[in-house]
Structures are given as structure tokens and as C-alpha cells.
Amino acid sequence: MFYEGMKDILLSFDQDLDFANGDLRLTSGVDLIKRKMQRYLTAEVGDWRLYNDVGASLSRFIGEPNTRATAEEIDGHLKRELNKIVYPATIQTKIIPMDLESVYINIQLFFLNSIIEEITCSFDYINGFVYSGFDDKTDTIISDSNIEFNEDGSTRKPNKYWDRIRTQ
Amino acid sequence: MAVRRTFQDIKTDAKNRLMASTPITDFSSTSTAGALIDIASLELERAYNTLDTAFSVLDPTQANGTFLDKLAFFKGITRSGSTTPVDLTTSNFYFFIDPRIGMNITNLVKTVYPDAKRQYRVQLFREGYIDDVDNITYFKIPKGTAVSNVSESATYTTIEDTFIRSDSNEAYVPVISSNTGAFSNVQANELTKHGLSLNSFLKNVALYINCTNRYPITNGSDSMTDVDLRYQISLAGASIGSNEINIRRKLLNIPGVRNITYTRGRYGNGTVEIIVEGISPIVSEGLLRAVEESVNSSLGGGDKSYVYRPEYHGIELNINVFTDVGIEQATVIDPIKNDIVAYINDIPMGDDIIWNRLVDIIMTGPVKDFIVSYFKLGEYDIFNKMNKNQKVLRYANQKQKYNQKWYIDTGMISCCVKVS
After folding, report:
1. How many structural domains compose chain B?
2. Rounded distance, CA B253 to CA B18, Å?
3. What's the whole-number mean pLDDT along residues B16-22?
């Protein structure tokens, strides 16, 4: 299995630590690389204060026209940035326009000419959002499973962090 | 602090421990484990920094700035700020009528503004600069008149009105520097430019009025540095009340004081004799007063202090120096004079003149040989700038007593260049 020797603490795709059996969950292999790529894609240079070269900084394409030329530029940019973390594998990307304001990005991870992982996300030229297609199936969304209403019946607990905030 | 750990030390240590006790291997920049270690290491480094600061602010050898001020405060010492040079006596700075014209103020004003120009005298009278249009007995120099050295690097201002009277051609006045700090200190006879000619009423008379300072004004000082303050803290334990160390410490802090001699009981029990050696060779009246005030505030009740300046021994020297053909006189004479002045005036009170040092100074440069015409010593009157009761000396080392100081200025050296 690829990247088997690399082991790290698992950080879920919504950027949280995860616990199993009273301990931090770990991750390794392709899953580890996939999570790293997701972190890289959604980060801006400067977000990681100690490492000034970390982050794909896709926001630099905000306001650009959704044209083939911009798509090629994003393509080159992503290859340059992501190849830093996937070595010895390589990256192949496809940028496909979805509508006037966004593109669909398909990233394939190659090793010895075979695809070992494929991930997708979309990028919005208007606000710079990167909508990743990643998801942790094991995450429990508390707000969905434990709906509560305020006394006036208007507001629902918005997310899983709400419980923590309320108990502080 | 014994051991201070940096971010990198802590991070490396944490990484090694995690690698040894968990399966985690990825500590790269985008790894979760790496990020958590970074956060912990950063915070620990900050904790070490805080500890380091707390440790150093309590240590007088390391503390600085306000922390050092607080430590000094515990010892009863405060950091002295910068001071402005000032001379409040009326025996130092003075205006005087140029002695070459040989007139008193009455004649001077009447010569500048004869009866044909009487209206100018009337103007002066109306403005209060003279007391009468025809029978002038004084000429007022207003307070706020700027005076400076030739280069105008040190500018002072008179702080009182002063009057040149018909029976005296001099008018003494206190002065204060326009700037703060030691940079504005001046040596004797430096404040020779005045701004009277800028006053439209006075400018014609001002042409014949000069000014100068008899003594140096050296009580300007820069604020105490951390190094100075540390030294004061180190002395604080040994100097309490009216003991010698305490008085010496206080006096050496007065701007312009180079050294003092302290003799207890010279004039009977409970007396202290202090002789002040200044940074400038001549000690001014203002400096003596500052020292006296400082001593009296430290002495015990009933004790009496006697503060004096050194007895000045004026040296006069006349030499003929021999050089090669074609050497300009000024390039030989000026350096010799300046170097001799610097050497002799710098000799501490009570120390000897070493004759060979003088020979060495004279023979430096293009001088091939020299002959001394005379080498004299006199009792130097600092007020009148005269060398009285002169004695001719042998060309040898010269000794003096503990309270005596050598003095020389360029006017007391005659130097003649001859071609050999």
C-alpha cells in the first residue's frame, strides 16, 4: 500500500481531531495524503503561521474570467503546489467549467502510471470558496441528530460545536 | 536562568518522544502531529521567555530600562536624567567693551551716536536701554540675549538683564544653554559670539561689545545609562549616610567633576576638606557651589565642609624648534601647542610633569631638534588669567602637592620655528 510508512494523527475533513477507544485516531497511507491535499487546497499562504510556503492560495484566482486560459493557469498552479506533498507520486488535474462562476477540479494521484486515488472539488471565482468533495462518513453531525429548539421555537442548535460552547 | 529551551529544542524533543512511543512518523509541515507539536512548542517557548524575563528583571546585572530603575529604587537610587548646562553665578559669563577702543559706555554711546544723531539716543532711552539721553550711566543688555561659541554648536541665553555701567566696562550675567546634555558644555573663553547685533536698536553699539566666559560651564550631562546605574547599585551597599564612599559617589555624579580629594579633620574635628578636580582644568564657581551643596546635604549635623578648587600652577614654556626647509610654520607650531596643552591639562591633580613626555611631544612630526629658552612655573590666577610669582624650572620632571594642578593654555607657550 502506498505511503504506508507515514502515520499521522487523523484530522477530519472538517478540521477536527477524532477519537476512538479513548485515544486519538491515526491515519496513514493514501488517506493521509488525501487529507493533506484537502488541507493544502483550502489553505492560503499565511494560514499556517510557522510555514509560509503552505497553502494552494486559490483565492488569487478570484475575479478571473472562467476561460480556458484561467483553467490552464489553475491547472499549472495546482500541479506545482500539490506535487510538493505527494512525492514520489505525481498529480494530474482536470479543470472543467461548471457554470459561469465556478469550475470542477478533478485531481488524480498517479504512481508508476496507475491511478492510486482520485479526488474532486469545485472552485468559485466569485468568492474563492473551495467546495471539497471530501467527507468523513463516521462524523456524527450532532445538530442533525439532536435537534433542539429555543423557547420561542425559532432557532435550532446550528452545529456540533454548540454543545461545547454552551457548557463553557 | 540555568537552562533556557528554544522552540527548536522543545520541538525536537517532543518529536523524538512521540516517535519512540507512538506509531506516528509524519511530522512534516502539513501534518496534524507536527502542527500540534508546533503549538505546544511555541507556547512552551513563550513560557520560557516569560520565565527568562522574570529572572533577568530581578538580576541587577541583566535587568535594563524600567526594570533596572525599579531595582535601583529599592536601594534608594534614582536614575538621573539629562541636565542642561547652566551657570547661575555672576562671576563667569560677562559682556565687556572692547578694551582696544579705550572707552567707557558713556563715551561709546556718544561716539556711535553723536549729538548730530541724538534721536537714536532718544530711541535707546525710550526703549530702556540707557538711563539718560545725555548723561548715560548704564547700558542695558536685555535678558534672552543669545550667546554662543564660534561654531554656534553651543548656544546659551542670558537669563537676567545686565548693565554695563559707566564706572565698569564689564557686566556679568547668568546664562543657560538652549540645549540639554553634555554636548552643550563649553570650556573657558568659548562663548565669544553674541546676538546683540540682531537687535536693531543695539546693533551699532554692539559692534564694540564682546563677551566671554571665564570658567568652563560643564554641568550639562546626558541621562544615566543602564551601565552607570548598575554601577551605582553595586556601590549602594557600601555607601550609607555621610561616609566617604557615599559622598565621593554623589560628588562624582555631578556633571563636570573629574575627581575629588576627601580629607576628614583637616581643620579640626567634624571638618571635611574637599578639593574638586574638574573635567575642564579650571573649576568654575558654579561647579564648586554644586559640590558644596551636595556635600552639605550628606554630612551629619554639626560637620562642616570646606570645598575648594585646586591651587593652579601655571606653566610657561618658550621653545625654538628646528625643521627642514619648506615646512610651513603653522603645521609645526599648532600641533605642538595643542598636544602640550592636552598633556599638561590632563595630568591629574597632584601628579608630576614628566619632562621626557614633553620632549616626546615636541619631537613628534617634522621637528629635528629643539632648544628650550625657558620653562617656568607660576601661581596661576584663574580670575585675571595671570601667572604670578614665576620661578624658572630645571628641564626635568616637576612634582606638586596633592592639592595642586598644572595649567597651561596656548597663550602660555611660545614656539619659534627655525630652519636648520
Report:
1. 5
2. 59
3. 92
Task: Write out the residues of chain B at the interface with chain A, using a CB-CB cutoff of 8 A.
Answer: 22-26, 28-33, 35-36, 38, 42
| CB B361, CB B372: distance < 8 Å | no
Containing structural domain, residue B188: 86-213
Asked if A82 reaches chain B (Cβ–Cβ under 8 Å), the answer is: no
The reply to whether B190 and B233 lie within a common domain is no
In terms of average pLDDT, the best of A9-23, A137-151, B9-23 is B9-23
Q: What is the pLDDT of residues B350-376, one digit of tens each?
A: 999 999 999 999 998 888 899 999 999
Q: What is the pLDDT of residue B148?
A: 94
Residues of B whose CB is below 8 A from A17: 32
Tell me, yes or no, whether B202 and B184 share the same domain: yes
Whether cis (ω within 30° of 0) applies to the bond prior to B335 is no
**pLDDT of the residue at B245:** 81
Whether residue B201 sits in one domain with residue B158: yes
Q: Domain check: are B73 and B113 in the same one?
A: no
Residues of chain A neighbouring B21 (CB-CB closer than 8 A): none
- Which of B164, B179, B213 is the C-terminal boundary of a domain? B213
Same domain? For B97 and B190 the reply is yes
Q: Does B155 map to a domain?
A: yes
Residue B386 lies in a domain: yes
* Domain ranges for chain A: 7-135, 138-168
Do residues B340 and B298 share a domain? no
Q: Which residues of B touch A39 (CB under 8 A)?
A: 30
Within 13 A of B382's CA, how many CA atoms are on the CB side?
22
Predicted ipTM?
0.73
Distance CA B266, CA B274 (A): 10
A130 strand-pairing partners: A123
- Confidence class of residue A160 from pLDDT cuts 50, 70 and 90? low
Q: What is the Cα B391 distance to its own chain's centre?
A: 31
Angle B50-B237-B263 from CA coordinates, rounded to 5°: 150
- Please indicate, yes or no, whether the overall pTM of this predicted structure exceeds 0.95: no
Structural domain contains residue B156: yes
User: How distant, in Å, are the alpha carbons of B69, B79, B230, B322 from that of B54?
Assistant: 15, 21, 18, 67
Which residue is it, cell 531595582? Answer: B71
Tell me what pLDDT residue A151 has.
58
Q: How far is CA B289 from the centre of its chain?
A: 15
Query: Nearest residue on chain A to B25, judged by CA atoms?
Result: A7
User: Does residue B404 lie in a domain region?
Assistant: yes
Range A7-135 has CATH code 3.10.450.40: yes
